Amino acid sequence: MDEFELEDNLEFILQSIQELIEDQGENNPFGEVNQNELLANLVNYDQDNLMPDVSVEDVVNGKDVQGIPWEKMLFPRDQYREMKMKGYKNYQNLSYAREDALQDCKQVERDGPYYDFQYNTRRARLSIVHFQLRNLVWATTKHDVYTVHNQSMTHWSSLNQISTELINGDDCIIPKQRGHGSQSVSMVQFTTMAVDNDLLVVGGFHGELICKRLEDDGIVFSTRVTDDENAITNSLEIYQDPNGSRRLVVANNDCSVRIFDTKYFDLLNHYVFPWSVNSVSVNPDGTLFAVLGDHEDGLVVDPKCGKMAIYWLPGVKTQHVGCGTLETYHNPWLSLVEG
Question: For this UniProt entry, which residues form the secretion signal (predicted)?
Answer without folding.
Answer: none
